[in-house]
Structures are given as C-alpha cells and as structure tokens.
Amino acid sequence: MPDTYNAADITEALMLFADEQQREMLMKFFKTKKGEYGHGDQFLGIKCPQTRSVVNMARLKTPLTEIEKLLASPWHEVRLCGLLLLVEEMKAATPSRRLPRTAFAERRKAIADFYLAHLESANNWDLVDMSCPKILGIYLLFPLPDGTMPDRSLLDRLAADANLWKQRVAMVTNWMLIRCGQFDDALRIASALIGHKHDLIHKAVGWMLREIWKKNEDVLECYLETHYRALPRTALRYAIEKMSEPRRLYWLNRK
Questions:
Q1: Measured between alpha carbons, how far is 252 from 236 in angstroms, rounded to an integer?
Q2: Is the pTM higher than 0.85?
C-alpha cells in the first residue's frame, strides 16, 4: 500500500467499478435531465459501498491538494469520494474525550475552510448530506485555535445564499448539532427557509425537525404550535413522520 494517494490513483480505482446500467439508473434517480435539479451531472455508475471501499483505501493518505482535484471532477462519484475523504480528515481531527477540546483546532479550521471554498462541488443532495454534518457540523461543535467557538452565523449566510445546495447545507449541517442536544440553530434556519419553493429544502427542513423530535418531543411540539401553518406540507409530513398516529393526524388536520 502506498504512503500517499493522488487524484489520478483514486480516480483510476473508482473507474474499475463503473457500470453502464447503474449509470443510467443513477442519472434518472438524481434528476440530471434538462430543467431538473441535477441537470448536467455525470455519473460513472458506481454504488456507494464501492466508493467507500476506495475511501477506506485512501483515507488519511490523500493531501488536500489531491482532494481538491477530486472535487473538481465532472464525475459525481469522484467528487463524492473527495468529500468522503474530507470527512475522514475531519474525523481524525476531532479530539477524543481524553484530549482538550482545542486539540487539532487549527486542522479542523483548515478542513472547514477548504470545504467551504469548494462547496460548489457538493451540487446534489447526497453530496451535501454525506459531507456537511460531519465536516461543518463537527467544526461548529469545537473551539477554534484561540479557544472561542466558531461563529454559527455561517449557517445564516449559507441559508441566505441563492444556491440551492448551499441552502441545504445550512439546514442539514444542523444534524450533528441536534445530536448533541443543540436545537436553536436548526430552528432558526428552519424558520429562515420556511417559505422556500423547492421540495429538496422542504424535505431537509422536515428531516431536521424530525431529528429534533427524536431528542426532545416538547421542543418540536412548541415549534409547530407557532409555525405549522407556514410549514410546507412536505416539511410538516417529514417532521411528524415518527409521531404516534393520533398525534400525527392531529397536526395534519389542524386548520
């Protein structure tokens, strides 16, 4: 096994899994026709476990300069591989409970800055969902090198961006914060995106609200009391999906 991998090595390893039948299926699934949200994206036809096998091979052995080349690829699966390698970098820079919370702070900031600088490469919902919680979410949970916490207005700036995928990043990043019992940012971003026109944002908002419900039912119930009329129907359905049938019907049938 080599000590380091470059983008050409990784792309070549991925190409071995390319499958035409799978490619056609993925092109339809990720809506790549003209006028659809994934228009112009190109697929090799690689299943996610196969991509992850290449990630496992090259994890922590691929410099950011080579990950940058992967993120610039026209191939969806190559960009996914680059993003997952970046997830592995952030995972390695996350301090264990035995270390001070400022441990590896400079590395975490460098990874988060790199991710934000190349966010255009995360241009479909799977690329967003599989990267932002474990990169930006972790970054926001730990101190910066000077001991202060990262500014979470970053999420507000992303939510206010005209780019659909950056808006989804703003919402889905909260998954990691919610898992740690921190709900305020998710509720604020959900409210900021509540009038959004795109179904993919409705689903992201509803998904994060459902994650809040899993941790604290009262928090979601309180939020719904104020916002249920404004929530798009898809977002509401996602948010209440795991509730008991009587409670779910209560929210669905409220006027």
A1: 8
A2: yes
